Amino acid sequence: MKRLFALLATFATVLGLTAAFSPSAVAATGCKVDYTVTSQWSGGFQAGVKVTNLGAPVTGWTLGFTLPDGGQKLVQGWNATWSQSGSAVTVAGVDWNRALATDAAAEAGFTGSFTGANPRPTAFTLNGVACTGSLEADPPTVPAAGTPVEVNGRLHVCGVNLCNQHDRPIQLRGMSTHGIQWFDRCYNAASLDALANDWESDLFRIAMYVQEDGYETDPAGFTSRVNDLVDMAEARGMYALIDFHTLTPGDPNYNLDRAKTFFASVAARNADKKNVIYEIANEPNGVSWSAIKNYAEQVIPVIRAADPDAVVIVGTRGWSSLGVSDGSDESEVVDNPVNATNLMYAFHFYAASHQDDYRSTLSRAASRLPLFVSEFGTVSANGGGAMDRASTTAWLDLLDQRKISYANWTYSEAPESSAAFKPGTCDGGDYSSSGVLTESGALLKSRISTPDSFPTS
Ligand code: IDC
Predict the structure, then answer these.
(1) What is the structure's pLDDT at 219?
(2) Going by DSSP bridges, is the β-strand pair 129-130/203-209 parallel, antiparallel, or unpaired?
């Protein structure tokens, strides 16, 4: 009886794999699989799977593998169509990664739950052929020539992703200024050169506080400074994220008139640029999602009237936590989205304060909503305290897997552990040597400066 059951299970597995073949797919003659657990927490994990086709080119691929014991389950996958039947997992390529030339690779990932140990899955197959191959070394990836803006051009939202001019998902990695009313002197030719050239940053977020001696005290002056910083980012091939940094009071409607005035002006002035993204409310707090949505639906048309194509980011409830910090979750947004296109939702976290429950919300929400981590810290939510390297690494691995863009708080010399530079750095002209970096700055520079893999076709 037990034997028969096992036989039936094997048969079902084979059927499951076969049924998922794309009709035009050709069997691959060999393959190699790299399986990496990128983070693990109590009862859950996240893993990446890279399958390299060592055989003839295929026009469609289906990867199969077996989860090691009854306790492991697929929760959610991305960059492919994922399904599980018993212990057999089937992963089928999607439109943009379906064809695999000889030696080409496709990458996908998933989150899973587990009990007991969490060993590697077994019996990897590509179109039914066992993946036993290995390569001496991975072929070198050649980053596309050109600056991030040259390679990617004008951006748009595609499904839950941020897409480039080739309509392919990309991730932008970069840094946020501190409040420009306080640390303006840190943003100059030398520091922007360092960000573009040494950090190889894709993104520069311009945090323009509205209160706390910010925009409300000098609308014309702050508008003009933001525009100058947009130009400085553009000249270096970086995207500029214009952040209307509302924080206290937490209801963005308090600043509705100011937002309309500000965005009408910056959107008209920057409409022809390819590098501008608008973030209309930094961190709503103490306010309902419906009030935030109402604000967004009044500000977005003002931007669209002047600049119809740009991507807009809207903050979410509970300090842009998708509601988690208020005891809610992303369902309030999924069920009642902002009535606008080309829109992304902000998700912010501080790695020492926000951990597994926030990560699982992000993992879940990322397949339902276009998300942009327009601000995060490696430290506590007050901007200080010890850097949490393990949590920051788990977060950044997750964002990399999902191609979720991010900006780190802060590219500044503020006397707090979230700042990338040591106090006094902005007195001199050196933003490049390792001696000027804090622990957080060194970690972020090492993450951001790895080569981008922007698709170019
Ligand atoms: C903090 C700054 C700190 C400043 C404070 C009040 O690091 O120097 O005194 O704001 O303006 C956020 C906010 C961001 C906060 C940051 C750290 O978007 O403005 O900056 N933080 O507390 N959300 C979560 C954390």
Answers:
(1) 98
(2) unpaired
